[in-house]
Design a protein that fits this description.
This protein is an alpha/beta fold. It has a single domain (2-167), classed as P-loop containing nucleotide triphosphate hydrolases (Rossmann fold). Helices cover 44% and strands 18% of the residues. It contains six helices and five strands, in the order βαβαβαβααβα. It has helices at 15-25, 47-66, 82-90, 108-120, 128-135, 154-167, and strands at residues 2-8, 29-33, 72-76, 97-105, 145-148. Strands 2-3-1-4-5 form a five-stranded parallel beta sheet, with helices on both faces. Strand 2 (29-33), helix 2 and strand 3 form a beta-alpha-beta unit. The longest helix has 20 residues, at 47-66. The N and C termini lie close together (11 Å).
């Protein structure tokens, strides 16, 4: 049985770094960063581009899930609404797939410090801070396993995901 990890969280929480570590801990795995599916300049958020990114992500995930060389498929993306998770899952062939939905969260102070470091380094625009902090509480309403990464390294978070998923194995 394949396992699909849908790992969400606000910008700056550590999704990409954690997913990379998780990929390296799992044999026969692949990581897709949802942001890669609409990395455009200038970034344009419209109903058309939202539909496009969902189609792009679903297409790649379907291909990964059907690939016999892979046992673990990891998606890291903001996914701050249950409707996003539900829509994505409805597009995928999930027969013989164990789906694990995980939200990475952290304290507002930790999120601010992480994002400010990225802003100071020129890696992110300043407006990301307000947007990310506004989304942080939305993860409480999702039907996901929530993992607080405030005091965790990306490797520690990846190991915590594996531990939590092992405890909930079907």
């Amino acid at each position: 049985m394949k396992r699909l990890y849908l790992i969400g969280g606000p910008m700056g929480v550590g999704k990409t770094a954690t997913c990379r570590q998780l990929k390296n801990l799992l044999h026969r795995s692949v990581f897709l960063d949802g942001d890669w599916c609409w990395d455009m300049h200038p970034f344009v958020l419209t109903p058309e581009t939202r539909a496009m990114v969902m189609d792009n992500i679903a297409h790649l995930l379907r291909n990964f899930l059907s690939c016999s060389a892979l046992d673990h498929v990891i998606l890291g993306w903001v996914m701050h609404e249950q409707a996003i998770l539900d829509d994505l899952l409805a597009r995928l062939p999930l027969e013989n797939v164990d789906v694990r939905c995980i939200s990475l969260v952290c304290s507002a102070q930790a999120l601010t410090a992480r994002l400010q470091a990225d802003i100071d380094a020129g890696l992110r625009e300043p407006d990301v801070l307000e947007r990310s902090l506004a989304r942080l509480p939305r993860y409480e309403a999702l039907q996901t396993l929530r993992l607080d990464t405030t005091a965790m390294t990306p490797l520690g978070a990846a190991r915590a995901i594996l531990d939590a998923c092992a405890e909930e194995a079907p």
